[in-house]
Amino acid sequence: MNERGVVAGRVDLLRELEPAVARQLDRHLESARDWFPHQYVPWEVARNYDGPLAGEPWRAEQSPLAPAVRDALLVNLLTEDNLPSYHHEIASRFGRESAWGTWVHRWTAEEGRHSEALRSYLHVVRGLDPVVLERARMAHVSAGYDSGQPTLAHALAYVTVQELATREAHRNAGQACAEPHGVRLMSRIAADENLHMIFYRSICADALDVAPDQVTAAFADVICGFRMPGHGIPGFHGRAARIAAAGIYDLAMHHENVVTPLLRTLRIMERGGLGPVGQEAVDRLGRHLETLSGKARRVRELRARLADRRRAGEGA
């Protein structure tokens, strides 16, 4: 494999997909809407914290957010904070030349708004402990990030799944905020992630036509082993469990709102004319979907039982 992720004997996707990238970049620039992080932050409620400005220290009772929402927004923000590592990943994979490079830099510029706006919002509304947040940011960003994707096809499959999962995570966290400024901000960030997902999904549709076996196998590898880019955040597994228990993002949502729609839109499971590698990948995906469906069903059943218990408790 060379430094751009092109495997000898396989289709040179970087070169073959360049016209598609140029088309999708033009479409994206026509669709994207400028927005300004400072306009989404309720600055009038801000007050000084303890420290050099001798303000008031953070206390949990000051937060307008439920504990699970605080977990979700911390994970979402720290994920966005690792943008330098993500830029390095895609710039190394896609290059900095031609339409690929233009997209890399445009994507990075748009993503940079997310952490800026979300951190400002959380500080202003005292949504979560800023000391805990900063220590976790230092640990997470200092560790860097490596997606571990071995080829360009894998990288494209991963960012397509990841952008849709991130859209869902942001949108659901916003809906759970029960605080109007947070709802508005997270909806705005989710809209960006949706446009990014559409870009990558469109490129993957072209890639499947150019190299169906190669790209189908990459999707099987990515979906069967998928992990969110924030999995290295300190305390991630405990926070993820609380986020799932609150119905903000769980395995059932991942199955129903991320994996299934992507496979359906890209027609991966019904694609004909595949060779042995592609067909094996489809079979592997089918088995994984069956397992994922069963786990998602159990998650829904558990959530329903918990809701019944809450209602019974409220009625007692």
UniProtKB/TrEMBL annotation:
| Top-tier EC class | oxidoreductase
SUPFAM superfamilies named in the record:
Ferritin-like (SSF47240)
What InterPro entries does the entry give? Answer: Fatty_acid_desaturase-2 (IPR005067), Ferritin-like_SF (IPR009078), RNR-like (IPR012348)
Q: Does the keyword ATP-binding apply?
A: no
Give the Gene Ontology MF terms in alphabetical order.
stearoyl-[ACP] desaturase activity
Enzyme Commission number(s) from the entry: 1.14.19.2
Q: What residue ranges are annotated as transmembrane?
A: none
Q: Which cofactor does it need?
A: Fe(2+)
Pfam families assigned to the protein according to its UniProt record, in alphabetical order = FA_desaturase_2
What keyword terms does UniProt attach to this protein?
Answer: Fatty acid biosynthesis, Fatty acid metabolism, Iron, Lipid biosynthesis, Lipid metabolism, Metal-binding, Oxidoreductase
The family annotation for this protein states: Belongs to the fatty acid desaturase type 2 family.
Q: Which PANTHER family does the UniProt record give? A: ACYL- ACYL-CARRIER-PROTEIN DESATURASE-RELATED, STEAROYL-[ACYL-CARRIER-PROTEIN] 9-DESATURASE 7, CHLOROPLASTIC
How does this polypeptide assemble, per the annotation?
Homodimer.
Name listed for the protein in its UniProt record = Acyl-ACP desaturase
**Originating species:** Streptomyces millisiae
